[in-house]
């Protein structure tokens, strides 16, 4: 089970015609936010790998409204009480996730480059060395 950074209620705007706000029990883990649909027990996961940004943060009355933009362009609207800080925590964890992925990509590239330099058994190394005749 991934580490849990934050857990509690978050409201998600429905995709329907009326666009009603529905309370969801959310858990923010190192993979991204997960929210359940009340009594149905259905859990929806938003993986940081599929998230582009947290956008349109706006404070109105007692709520903070924000939009999670997915890489395929889908936008998901959320709101929470101002003192809950879900938008900031999701943004922080998403940035840390993207940084970890970038570090892994650099390490992977360096390992591949190092493997190319390793001399294969029984073959000559192709390095700039003086030719001995």
TrEMBL record:
Q: Which controlled-vocabulary keywords does the entry list?
A: Cytoplasm
Question: Where the protein is mainly located, per its record?
Answer: cytoplasm
In which compartments does the protein localize? Cytoplasm
Q: Which residues cross the membrane?
A: none
GO CC terms in record: cytoplasm
GO molecular function, a single term:
phosphatidylinositol phosphate binding
Per the UniProt entry, what are the Gene Ontology biological process annotations, in alphabetical order? Answer: positive regulation of apoptotic process
**The organism sits in which domain of life?**
Eukaryota
Q: Which PANTHER family match?
A: PLECKSTRIN HOMOLOGY-LIKE DOMAIN FAMILY A MEMBER 1 (PTHR15478:SF4), PLECKSTRIN HOMOLOGY-LIKE DOMAIN, PQ-RICH PROTEIN (PTHR15478)
Q: What is this protein identified as?
A: Pleckstrin homology-like domain, family A, member 1
Gene name per UniProt: PHLDA1
């Amino acid at each position: 089970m991934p580490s849990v950074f934050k857990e509690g209620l978050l409201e998600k705007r429905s995709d329907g015609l009326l666009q009603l706000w529905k309370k969801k029990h959310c858990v923010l883990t190192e993979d991204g936010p997960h929210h359940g649909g009340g009594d149905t027990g259905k859990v929806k996961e938003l993986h940081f790998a599929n998230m582009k940004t947290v956008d349109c943060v706006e404070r109105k009355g007692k709520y903070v409204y924000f939009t999670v933009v997915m890489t395929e362009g889908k936008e998901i609207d959320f709101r929470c009480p101002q003192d809950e800080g879900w938008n900031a925590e999701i943004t922080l964890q998403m940035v840390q996730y993207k940084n970890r992925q970038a570090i892994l990509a650099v390490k992977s590239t360096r390992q591949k480059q190092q493997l190319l330099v390793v001399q294969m058994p029984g073959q000559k190394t192709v390095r700039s060395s003086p030719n001995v005749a």
